[in-house]
Amino acid sequence: MHLRTFPDPVLLRPSAPVEVFDDPLREKLAEMWSIMYTEKGVGLAAPQVGWSARVLVFNPSGEQSDESGARVVINPKVLKRWGKVKDQEGCLSFPEIYVDVVRAAGVRLQWQDEHGAVHEEDINDFPARIVQHEMDHLEGVLLVHRMSPVDRIRYRRELAELAESLETAPEERA
Fold first, then answer.
1. Of the candidates 36, 10, 3, the residue with the CA atom closest to the CA atom of residue 140
2. 89, 120, 134, 164: which is the annotated catalytic residue?
3. pLDDT digits (tens, 9 = 90+) for 56-107
4. pTM
5. Cα separation of 38 and 161, whole Å?
6. For 35-61, how does the pLDDT look when each residue is reduced to its tens digit (9 = 90+)?
7. Strand order of the sheet with strand 43-45?
8. Residue 50, by phi and psi: left (phi above 0), alpha (psi -120 to 50) or beta?
9. Dihedral sign from CA coordinates of 14, 20, 60, 35
10. Which domains occur in the chain, in start order?
11. Is 96 marked active-site?
12. How many helices, marked H, and strands, marked E, lie in the chain?
């Protein structure tokens, strides 16, 4: 596994549900955590590492030493949303690009953990933003899709450079 950047095709496809909760799944999750912390992220979705599965990990602190808010989220469903907040977001698949995105202030989330147990929790504020951002990845919705027309113009050079870097390194997609 390695971090994928826009416009890698795996990022643009909806992900498949997880049906088997086994040691290979937990090994992939450990690798996702490692990549997320190495890249200094607070969340990571499976498509971002080339794995088309409805899986995400997040830790609002971004610190491996503080995993009090860390979660493994498999097959997530938003049951309810409330409030609206506009705030700046970045994405590991769009390095050095930050745009304002409107999200729900809170969500009631249902998901499975790495053992298949079902959980439900109300998640608010920054953790809710992270979950919604990562869930977008599971649907093939990217930061570029959330950009305003002004942001697309502002970051056109960076987006073109990302596309060019993918073209010059097609073996990275394997």
1. 10
2. 134
3. 999 998 888 888 889 999 999 999 999 999 999 999 999 999 999 999 999 9
4. 0.91
5. 23
6. 999 999 999 999 999 999 999 999 998
7. 43-45, 55-58, 71-82, 106-112, 118-124
8. left
9. negative
10. 9-169 (3.90.45.10)
11. no
12. 5, 7
